[in-house]
Each structure stands twice: as structure tokens, then as C-alpha cells.
Specification:
The chain has 132 residues and is an alpha/beta fold. The protein has five helices and seven strands; from the N terminus they run E-H-E-H-E-H-E-H-H-E-E-E.
Length: 132
Amino acid sequence: MIVLDEQLLGRNLHIEMARWYPGAIIYVSSLRPNSVIKDEALPTLLREQNQPTFVTINETDFWQRIPASESYCVVCFALTDARVREIPQRLRALLEYPEFRTKAARMGKIVRVAEREIVYYTIQDRTPRRLE
């Protein structure tokens, strides 16, 4: 399951992702309808899902701030709002790396995808590692 941050709502990214991602694609707002979801509540909501991958452009609030958990993966895209249309293609490229190819492999990782680098930390090691 891919869970898209509320900032990505209304961009139809789920339509593009559904062309290649076989699982469910939802928006975080559907995890707790009719309420405001604070950033600090997100880990609890994600743990209640079945191995979700949360996707956001809000890297300042999540990268090296959200705790890693074996129950979920968080992917922070270092993109401006004007470039969110790149997310489906960049996410697909990320999921082709062996470290992220399966849900089981992704769990426990927090990822930052920037223009020219991909770094991540894990539940076991908070030191960021760079993908080559």
C-alpha cells in the first residue's frame, strides 16, 4: 500500500502510480476521515496499516525526525510543489533498487530522494546511507 501525504491531494498522482503499482494507493486523509492528521500522529496511523509506504514532499517535517519502524516505510521527496508531477516516475525508480523492491525490504526505512542522490536510514542504524 502506498499512502500519499495530504499535500499531494488533487494532483492525480495516484492515477499515474496505478499504471505500474499493483497495490492500493490511498491518501493519508482516508486513514482518519473528517479530522486533521498531525505529523506526530502519523507513525501510529501507519503502524495500523499493512506495511504502508508513506510518500511526502514535506521532508523538513519527516526526514530524520520520524522514527523508523518495521511496520512502515517513509519516502521524503526533496521536490518543490511545482515538481510533484515527478513523484510517480521517481518513486518507481526507487522501488527498482533491491533495498526497496519488496514491501518487506522497504519496511523500517526512512528515505530522502533528492535531485542527484537517494539516502536512507533504518530502524537499526540512524546514520544515513547513500544508494549508488
